[in-house]
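Revision sheet: structure tokens.
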Amino acid sequence: MGRIEESIEIDAPIGTVYREWTDTESLPACMRGGAGRGATATEVLPPDRIAWSGGPELPGHSGVVTFHRVTDHSTRLMLQLDTEPHGLWDHLVEGLGFTDRKVIDELAAFKARVEDHRHHQAA
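Predicted:
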């Protein structure tokens, strides 16, 4: 089983970041795939924490995202994913670090969307 732990600071209030995360259009692709394949929330504590399990279609997959207020206008998002590779391809992708890189890139894109959306609303 692999574990990925990443965090990112976002220039937006905790409530905004939480709402954007729970909007499936904004959700990073690595999370949308699980949500569309039977993943179920196991814990939801707005606006602090969301945990999920992969369900029957994604056994061994689970995760938790926590939201931490840094200031009134910035939030640290911390993501922990546990993955269970199935098959040679999954093992290769994970072993080469592509899964970690994808998560980092998707969190950066999520940050950019939230901050861009927030700045457009303020304008």
